[in-house]
Every structure is written in structure tokens, then in C-alpha cells.
Amino acid sequence: MRKFVSYVINAWETLKSDVLAVPGNDPAFKGGVSGWLEVIFCYPGLHAIVVHRIIHFLHATLHIPFLPRLLSHIMRWLTGIEIHPGAKIGKGFFIDHGMGIVIGETAEVGNNVRLYHGVTLGGTGKEQGKRHPTVEDNVMIGARACLLGNITVGEGAKIGAGAVVVKDVKAGATVVGIPASPLVRHTETDSNDTPLSIKILLDRINRLEKELDALKNYRNEEVA
């Protein structure tokens, strides 16, 4: 009985954190009665995660066959968001404009993670076992980013829109591009220092200019 009560309390806290993640992440949230009515009835991302938690319980705890996959398929059709019943997702999960999101079977998502439309937490082939990303707490993943394989995205990291991530991302890092690489932020002091590669290029240009001047002087002397 205690175990059941503990589960109900935890489920309620998780549900509450998912709902409260909306005003904390969506600037379009208006507040008031009308705002909360929109959240309850008009946010497919919230609908997807709430139903997924039920589906995950049926799949991972009760080990009910077929039904969880059927329900997840129906939710995909209703919301445009595909979450495998086996995916583990923490509290305070927020999906903004969720159309096209795919979260694979062995994906693990921490607390207070934010996803935008088109994000994929997918695998890279037909390997068995753990084959999808692990996303730690407080991570933001931009629109249409693809995170592939058994990689880890560290706490507080940010994944830029359209990035393709196939390697681990350090905690607090921001990665962008294809393949994704860390975004280097230059300080004001750094901006005054010419990078070594540019210095080498400038030295090469100076040498070529000197050689060109010497060649011109030589030809002028011949003409004279």
C-alpha cells in the first residue's frame, strides 16, 4: 500500500511539474483562466508527455504487451510527436511546437529539458541494447536537431537548431552545426588578438609582396 501511495504522489508531482513547465518556458503563455485553459486543451506537447507517462508505466512496470505501442501510435497521429513507450523522461519536460519530434526506445531524458519541433533522439543503426541518447538535466535542444546514438548530453548544455550530434556534449556547452561542434565565445580581449592561422597567412602575403617588389625592381633595372 505504501508503495502504491508513493507512486501516486510521485506521479502527481511529475504531472504538476510538466504543467508548470509551460509558463516557465513559453513566452506565449498569457496567464489567467484563459491561459491555463489553452495549456490544458491546446498544447499537444503537454498532451504527449502526460499520456506517455501512462504508456511508460504500462510498458516498463506492468509489462503489458502491444497496448503501449498502440497508444503511442495513436498519440503520434494526434499530436505529431512520437515517443517510444520505453523512453525514460524526467520531470518538468517541455515540448514547444512539437510536430515531428521522435524519441527512441532507450533514450533517457533528465529533468527540466526543453525540446523544439523536429528534434530526433535516435539511433544510428540496428544495434541492440542502449542505442539512443542520454540527455541530462536542464538541457535545451533547438528545432530539427538530431542526436544520434548512445551519447550523453551534459547538464545545462544547449544544442543549436539543425545540429547533428553524434558525440558526447560536455555540461554547459553550446554546440552547433553538422556535425555539431562547440560554439566558441570570444571575449573582448580575444577579439584584439589575431588568431595564429591569420598571422601565418599575413606573413605569407607580406613575403609575396616583397618578392613581387623585388621582381619589379629587377625588371626595371633590365629595361634601364
Automatic annotation (TrEMBL):
Q: Which UniProt keywords are given for this protein, alphabetically ordered? A: Acyltransferase, Amino-acid biosynthesis, Transferase
InterPro entries named among the record's database cross-references: Hexapep (IPR001451), Hexapep_transf_CS (IPR018357), LbH_SAT (IPR045304), Ser_AcTrfase_N_sf (IPR042122), Ser_O-AcTrfase (IPR005881), Serine_acetyltransferase (IPR053376), Trimer_LpxA-like_sf (IPR011004)
Q: What is its EC number?
A: 2.3.1.30
Gene Ontology terms describing biological process: cysteine biosynthetic process from serine
MF annotations from Gene Ontology: serine O-acetyltransferase activity
- Asked whether the keyword Magnesium is assigned, the reply is no
Please indicate if the UniProt record lists Transferase as a keyword.
yes
Q: Which GO terms describe its cellular component?
A: cytoplasm
The catalytic activity, as recorded, is: L-serine + acetyl-CoA = O-acetyl-L-serine + CoA
Which Pfam families does the protein's record reference? Hexapep (PF00132)
EC class of the enzyme, as a word: transferase
Query: What PANTHER family does the entry give?
Result: SERINE ACETYLTRANSFERASE
Family affiliation: Belongs to the transferase hexapeptide repeat family.
Output this protein's name. Answer: serine O-acetyltransferase
